[in-house]
Amino acid sequence: MDRLIARTDECYQLAEQHFRRRFPRPDIELDLRGQRAGVAYLDRNLLRFNGRMYRENQEHFLQHTVAHEVAHLIAHQLYGHRIRPHGREWQGLMTSLFGLPANRCHNYAVPSRRVTRYLYRCACPDPMPFTAQRHARVARGSRYLCRRCGSQLHFTGSRQQG
């Protein structure tokens, strides 16, 4: 975490020298999970980073991902709410200020998640797999009709792991 904080501060110092003004330092959390390497919460002045991706790609992560997220906060503080997240203001900070490519996405390895599908049936011969979210909606009372035969889909009691 110390290196993340130090790199964040380094990015802010570059911005402060360039723009000749102070920027409030963000809170930093290393609790992000999933496919995103980092997230900037603009109104909360908060940066969240993916701990697994940081550990597996430390040098690149510190150089690129930290600068990427800091650029979001600085762009917001300089230009306000109306700019696009990866628009020209953000791109300018990445290339001119940090001297890095303005890449929108990372290419770190992301392990695939095991996904559960809930099998539903209608009058058609093949079952229809539902996501966990759609299955939960059915449990709360939503009804779904088959687009092919028009009859209501009912949970079979079976699940698929994929």
For the record, the count of structural domains works out to: 2
Specify the CATH architecture of the largest domain.
2-Layer Sandwich
The best one-word shape is elongated
Strands across the major sheet, in which order? 1-3-2
Instruction: Please work out how many helical segments DSSP would assign.
Output: 5
Record field, number of beta strands: 6
Structural class: alpha+beta
Helical proportion, percent range: 25-40%
- Distance separating the two termini: 34 Å
| CATH superfamily annotation of the largest domain | Metalloproteases ("zincins"), catalytic domain
Question: Biggest β-sheet, characterized?
Answer: 3 strands, mixed
Radius of gyration from the CA trace? 22 Å
Using the coordinates above, name the CATH class of the largest domain.
Alpha Beta
Instruction: Tell me the series of helices and strands, N- to C-terminal.
Output: HEEEHHHEEHE
- Poorly predicted spans: none
The CATH topology of the largest domain is what?
Answer: Zincin-like
Mean pLDDT: 93
Keywords: Hydrolase, Metalloprotease, Protease
GO molecular function: metallopeptidase activity
InterPro entries: SprT-like_domain (IPR006640)
Pfam families: SprT-like
